[in-house]
Design a protein that fits this description.
Blueprint: E1 2-5, E2 41-42, E3 46-50, E4 54-60, E5 70-73, E6 78-83, E7 104-109, E8 121-125, E9 128-134
Parallel strand pairs: 1-5, 2-7
Antiparallel strand pairs: 3-4, 4-9, 5-6, 6-7, 8-9
């Protein structure tokens, strides 16, 4: 898994394209579920949890290739890109029926406010990516 943090004022997806028009106002987290969705991309589902010490983004990424998963965090964006496992292991097979999506997971979110972006941690297990944003200590 590749994980990068970007300094203030930079964007990992600058000029990447249009965002979806749906914006929700979750003011406690400064959250906006807008997502950059390039061709052949799948919008992964996400849960956002608030604990005493962290804000947690939990992305559902079944079939994502862990060694190709990219997570980039800047003060303005949380950018996720994860190719799905292909069906290349079935060399001589043709689909009789197919429901599972194919392509690349792509999601662009706003990071939560009042968190320490320098100490974010991420863990990918069992098709779930857990991104933990530690809350800043109150003075």
């Amino acid at each position: 898994m590749e994980f990068r943090s970007h300094p203030q004022g930079t964007s990992p997806w600058a000029g990447a394209g249009q965002f979806t028009s749906g914006i929700f106002n979750l003011s406690a987290f400064n959250y906006s579920p807008g997502a950059y969705t390039p061709a052949y991309s799948v919008l992964p589902r996400v849960d956002i949890l608030d604990t005493e010490a962290h804000v947690i983004y939990l992305f559902e990424l079944p079939g994502a290739e862990p060694d190709k998963l990219s997570l980039e965090i800047s003060p303005s964006e949380v950018a996720l890109n994860a190719p799905m496992e292909t069906t290349a292991r079935f060399e001589r097979a043709a689909f009789l029926y197919q429901e599972r999506p194919k392509g690349t997971y792509a999601r662009l979110l706003t990071p939560p406010s009042n968190v320490d972006l320098d100490n974010v941690s991420a863990d990918y297990r069992y098709g779930l990516l857990e991104v933990r944003f530690p809350k800043k200590q109150r003075s």
